[in-house]
Amino acid sequence: MEISKESDYGMENKIIQNVKQTISGIEIGYFTTAKNYIYDEYYKYFNNDDKETKKYALLIFTCMLGNWFNKSTFVFKPEKERLKYNNEKGTKFFNFEDYITSLLDNYQNIKQEFPYMFEIIVVYLILIEKDKHMIYEEWFPEINPEIFQELREKILIPNKNLVDDCHPIKYLFREVGIKPFFKGDFFDE
Asked: What's the 3-state SS for 16-56?
């Protein structure tokens, strides 16, 4: 039993290290810096008992959405686009359905534990769809449309006001422990 705990801790530590490496520089470039994402199934840690692991798994998802909206990195691709890259050795893609499903399963706890991160996730999920002028169901036809309907009903529609009322990124930085770079991202304390 103890070996399993050590193994779980090692995996959690790996998740944290991968995320830290991937998001380095976020305090300067926010969500516009293109990055190569270190592949892992981060969505599996959205309900992890270790708060740090959970925080970093959610933070990488937040960054994925922010980069997607800002058109700097696209880690979620519909199946038809993924098939184009199938011949490239070692190409791995993040499965949007897995991330949305995990968000749906855990959104109440996420909203309670990481309210500013939750805000940004919701805002980007709304704005990505608006910006593309295409609903997720059309964009990702391989995903059961009921998942997106549930996403709208449980999370997006009840929180649509966040698009206009979202806190500045400095709140996210403080919530997750990122030291700001720009003067305006510090709190006057």
From this structure: HHHHHHHHCCHHHHCCCCCCCCCCCCHHHHCCCCCHHHHHH
- The H or E element that residue 160 is part of is none
Identify whether the C-beta of residue 158 lies closer than 8 Å to the C-beta of residue 141.
Answer: no
Q: What is the DSSP letter of 75?
A: -
Q: Can you tell me the distance from the alpha carbon of 148 to that of 143, in angstroms, rounded to the nearest whole number?
A: 9
CB atoms within 10 A of CB 31: 21
Note down pLDDT in tens along the chain; length 189 residues: 333 343 455 566 888 888 888 777 676 666 777 677 888 999 999 999 999 999 999 999 999 998 899 888 788 988 888 777 665 555 677 999 999 999 999 999 999 999 999 999 999 999 999 998 999 999 999 999 999 999 999 999 999 999 998 888 788 888 888 787 667 767 775
